[in-house]
């Protein structure tokens, strides 16, 4: 791995039976990211459980309860690297809290691998995974038709599944899907091509992960800069220094650019872009920087710098798709807190329009919103927020809802 | 810099800076745990990148087991002084004097007791957030931990009841008496750390590089001879070229045989090693499959 390696975050979606853990285990194993002491630990456990071969899925079971009960509780993160890229896998379990866990892991992912058992084809859960991937706006989708060894590596079967899946994906407006046949158990088309799928001309899974274009996964056009922290050293050398620190969430900014501060609407010019490694002429998302301005205007955390060419909406009311994460259902009579970029404000739900059945995609006019439910809501916020539609900008279209009584994060929201 | 030259180290660095600034902005009284080890030295550089030209908006805190390597303690003091930042040191000895730690065997590792002094220090200063240099790739219990890891009044971690963490919107809210541990380098691996040390030319304690050292072999491990570890009857003292992959309690941190004299040579060795960082060097993690998880539940960092 060199110093010019890119970072890619991905998740896998599929149930235990689809061979998800085996796939992750094999990616780690075949890319030589499993260490001898880890391998000997899982060999011992496999033996203890009376298994014939080493169970690579054990690599992803982190907690004592999971190892004892053979289940996966929560999202776990795995790391591996090849000479081209460093990878972060968000590994989610496939049982009842699935929606909550998948939405959590998907929120930071560039790519999702949706696993299908070639014998079973497109199932209800495949549709659910795909819907959630589209809801959370994962930029790249790979449909991995696994267990090709169980259907005699049939090209016709593979094509049949792909046709059905792509039709469904198109209904959701997804056009960024790559289909791939593989066998995680045998190792065909993961890291090595193997000898069994010679009719398939496309890339292996590893080649896809290494080469998929991710530079445009963040919005590169609309400058968005939420102010995180105001730096005032108050030393002799930096007596008048006021640096507005933050991370560029979208677009780019250069010295001399005219910027608008939201929600106040005041304007100024970029005087300097300051970093520890020296001042910059231009900075890009997702760099963390400090900006100084040519004018002294009142700016604090929670404000957002933008450029006039494409302005976000500034409003106290918006519509959103909500994924409820808490065991306590949404209470329409209560006020909650919303955290959106660097701004936190009181909020309430002025209407709950419908709930989406993640299995059938049907809409239900059901006023109760329980854990794992996806709902369309209208929200009112005490202070104006500067936001974009989630589809245009993940960073400025997303928010979390916090219950002030417990301080728990109770919902994830996407502005529509 | 263009979007095309934004490397994995740039991405990790920017994420860590973003996290540190969120802590500074949203927590009332944060601290940065700093031991003088390589991960916390990386944390220090990230804090410089996050807050310079101003001072850090938090003190550095070290919980000293007094079983640390002298080279590491010297580095700790030197770096804190060079940066002109405030360093608070609290020692396990203070807790022992107070009677809140009772040591059964003075030769045994002291890591399990660190939690006690850490919690006492948190209470003494009223810290509501402690940033630490733990990484998810270090240990399987850590792979499940959030970047903002919530702790109750007893400092306990409840792995089954963690707050979901979405996008990079962090929930930093706690009630009085509770606190959070924040891990800005959660997503870094051992390899990333070495690449960053090399790229940033960070000064780290010499014992991370290959050197000749008197050691004894116990089981599968090579243990450094020190005033705390002396050969038992029948044990032979050897001189080997070794380096430390982690630097913790002297009685339970084993070096690995190595000839790597600089960060680049360590990167080369790390890319071919077949043993995990803690697997090779931490005897305290090998007591049981869940040693780290149990320590963390008790308030360990």
Per-chain topology:
The complex is a heterodimer of chains A (416) and B (301).
Chain A: E1 6-13, H1 20-30, H2 36-48, H3 64-69, E2 76-81, E3 85-91, H4 98-106, E4 111-117, H5 124-135, E5 140-146, H6 155-171, E6 177-181, H7 205-211, E7 224-231, E8 243-247, E9 252-254, E10 258-262, E11 266-274, E12 282-284, E13 288-293, E14 304-306, E15 313-324, E16 336-340, E17 343-356, E18 363-364, E19 374-387, H8 394-397, E20 398-402, E21 409-415
Parallel strand pairs in A: 1-3, 1-4, 4-5, 5-6
Antiparallel strand pairs in A: 2-3, 7-8, 7-14, 8-13, 9-12, 10-11, 10-14, 11-13, 15-19, 15-21, 16-17, 16-20, 17-18, 17-19, 20-21
Chain B: H1 8-26, E1 30-33, H2 38-51, E2 60-64, H3 70-83, E3 87-91, H4 92-98, H5 111-125, E4 129-131, E5 148-151, E6 179-182, H6 190-200, E7 211-218, E8 221-224, E9 238-243, E10 256-257, H7 263-272, H8 277-281, H9 291-297
Helix pairs in contact in B: 1-2, 2-6, 6-7
Topology as H/E string of chain B?
A: HEHEHEHHEEEHEEEEHHH
- Strand order in space, largest sheet of chain A: 2-3-1-4-5-6
Number of strands of chain A: 21
Estimated structural class of chain B: alpha/beta
Question: In terms of structural class, how would the helical and strand content of chain A be classed?
Answer: alpha+beta
If you average the pLDDT of chain A, what whole number results?
89
Low-confidence stretches of chain B: none
Radius of gyration of chain A: 24 Å
* Strand segment tally of chain B: 10
> What best-fitting shape of chain A do the alpha-carbon axes yield?
globular
Major beta sheet summary of chain B: 6 strands, mixed
Question: What is the percentage of strand-forming residues of chain B?
Answer: 5-15%
Provide the low-confidence segments of chain A as ranges.
Answer: none
| Share of helical residues of chain A | 10-25%
Percent strand of chain A equals: 25-35%
Largest sheet of chain A: 6 strands, mixed
